[in-house]
Specification:
The protein is α+β, with helices and mostly antiparallel strands and 562 residues long. The protein is 23% helix and 25% strand. The strands form seven sheets. Strands 17-26-25-24-20-23 form a six-stranded mixed β-sheet. A four-stranded antiparallel β-sheet has the order 1-8-6-3, with no helix packed on it.
């Protein structure tokens, strides 16, 4: 009997997959364990193996095509077996299993209404496209590049309309709520259409671009995709980026001396790597990034590079009049009202949305406890004498928290609406500050890792967060969060819960305070911890018991080794 294989969900956030390559063709004999296809998900390209022996009778979409999770991917069976009903039931009838001249003609004459969108996009004359995969256009929708992403901003197009594109080449840089990520092409062809200009927004699943053969009329495809609801706000309906501040306002703030044009060597030619914040500040200051030397990885330009750049050394625009204004170091005129409007980044929008929802939806309460860190300071000194990676106080807090969560599973939980989820695994999110906001990479199974392992992982996360190299898999799946501001001299603060976690721990700095020991007032090293709890899940006594265990572990670090 024929066996139907549906598109599997290969990651927790996957909604669709792209067939990067089929390794078996219709009519091939397949054995259990043979590699069927490579499927590109939202996080990685993964190999799909056959679950059984048989003959591949049907594929749901050719190379480069998209399928939604649970759409028809393939059918196995015996040679010659009739699979018409199976194809019809699962909505995969738009692409015949074995294309013939007759089937192609029939397909062009009568489009199949149940075909997957990525496999069959109506052309300008409203007929179904040819079945030959090499001739099919590729309709690229805005992908969901993070679990919280609802829209993306085109930071820059690396290919323009009319440019030839090869599979794997970068099409555009997409600014999400958490990072700026590169979008690669799934196939070879020519870029025929762009759904938005650089700086404009596109909602997830709206039309981003079309790739196909040169000369193809894309007007009908664009209209069909919009009519299907997949690109309701693409192209010209996309909200334009806010305009840059007017020169009249900016002039009193950053006056410069206009000098004769100075020949300056171009530092960056071709593609320029720069953080979105650096690009925005450079645009406001009128700085051409090709003259700015980047200090980040691979010459990436950061905010610091823009701040340290000397405008006087930049070449003068040809249209600038030869006149002298106030020197760079001069202050604004007393009483002069001036300001700079900076568009809200995608990251900041999502931080605002998620934390507002958390604070106004989850009933927060807060528990604060003082920790005597004398023993922890002594233990850290001893540990770092032999550790392969230097252990920080934050690493000690992460390890102690993981062990305390093991004893208090109610803290390691999530409010899920109709039920409460108590997590058996312990994944601790560690808040990391970046130029544009906050990222929370996750130390997975923290209770089973050593202090050196935790230290190395947190340091790697912090560096990759600042370099914008974190991937969605790095910040998803936390069960508890730690936010540490102690290194900034903050003694105590309260943090907003990071949903869907039920709690977050705010860690202050270590300060010397008078304490009573053995009846004597002596100086002590005190650190204050504040636990924010979701009262829908955690009660006060439960939170207090967790903090007591955490206090014991930090005040007697040897307990972490037992």
């Amino acid at each position: 009997m024929a066996e139907v294989i549906l598109m599997p969900r290969l990651s927790d956030t996957m909604t669709e997959g792209v067939i990067a390559a089929w390794h078996k063709r219709v009519g091939d004999t397949v054995k259990k364990g043979d590699l069927l296809a490579e499927i590109e998900t939202d996080k990685a390209t993964m190999e799909l193996e056959s679950y059984q022996d048989g003959v591949l009778l049907h594929i749901g979409t050719p190379d480069g095509g998209k399928l939604q999770v649970n759409d028809l991917l393939a059918i196995f069976g015996k040679p010659g077996e009739d699979i018409t009903e199976l194809v019809k039931i699962h909505g995969g009838g738009a692409l015949p299993a074995i294309p013939t001249a007759a089937s192609v003609a029939a397909a062009n004459a009568t489009p199949a209404p149940d075909a997957p969108a990525a496999a069959s996009i109506p052309t300008a004359n409203n007929a179904a496209p040819a079945i030959d995969p090499a001739s099919m256009e590729e309709v690229v929708l805005m992908p969901r590049l993070s679990d919280t992403m609802t829209e993306g901003v085109i930071a820059s197009w690396q290919k323009n309309v009319g440019d030839s594109v090869k599979k794997g080449e970068v099409l555009a840089d997409i600014e999400t709520d958490k990072a700026t990520m590169e979008l690669e092409s799934y196939k070879d062809g020519v870029l025929l259409y762009q759904g938005a200009k650089a700086g404009e927004k596109i909602l997830v699943n709206d039309l981003l671009c079309i790739i196909g053969k040169e000369g193809l009329d894309v007007a009908g495809i664009v209209a069909a995709v919009k009519a299907s609801g997949g690109a309701a706000n693409a192209s010209t309906e996309t909200a334009p980026a806010p305009p840059a501040p007017a020169p009249a306002v900016a002039a009193p703030v950053s006056p410069v001396v206009v000098a004769p044009a100075v020949e300056q060597a171009v530092v960056n030619s071709g593609r320029i790597f720069a953080s979105p914040l650096a690009k925005r500040i450079a645009a406001e200051k009128g700085i051409d990034l090709k003259y700015v030397k980047g200090s980040g990885d691979n010459g990436r330009i950061t905010k610091i590079d823009i701040d340290q750049y000397t405008p006087a050394a930049a070449p003068v625009a040809a249209a600038a009049p030869a006149k002298t204004v106030a020197p760079v170091a001069s202050q604004a005129v007393v009483g002069q009202v001036s300001f700079t409007d900076v568009p809200v980044s995608q990251m900041r929008k999502v931080i605002a949305k998620r934390l507002s929802e958390s604070l106004f939806t989850a009933p927060h309460f807060y528990l604060t406890m003082q920790i005597d860190m004398d023993a922890a300071i002594a233990a850290r000194t001893k540990i770092n004498e032999v550790a392969s990676v230097k252990v920080s106080f934050n690493d000690l807090v992460v390890k102690a928290t993981a062990m305390a969560l093991k004893k208090h599973p109610k803290i390691n939980s999530s409010w899920m609406g109709d039920f409460i989820r108590y997590n058996d695994h312990i994944n601790i999110g560690v808040a990391v500050a970046v130029d544009e906001g906050l990222l929370v990479p996750v130390v997975r199974f923290a209770d089973s890792k050593s202090l050196s392992q935790i230290g190395a992982e947190v340091k790697d996360f912090a560096q990759r967060a600042k370099d914008k190299k974190l991937q969605p898999a790095d910040w998803e799946g936390s069960t508890f969060t730690i936010s540490n501001l102690g290194m900034f001299g903050i003694d105590q603060f309260t943090a907003i819960i990071n949903p869907p976690d039920a709690c977050i721990l705010a860690v202050g700095g270590i300060s010397q305070e008078p304490v009573v020991k053995n009846g004597q007032v002596v100086p002590g090293n005190i650190m204050k911890l504040t636990l924010s709890c979701d009262h829908r899940v955690v009660d006060g006594a439960t939170g207090a018991a967790f903090l007591q265990t955490l206090k014991q572990l930090l005040e007697e670090p040897v307990r972490m080794l037992v």
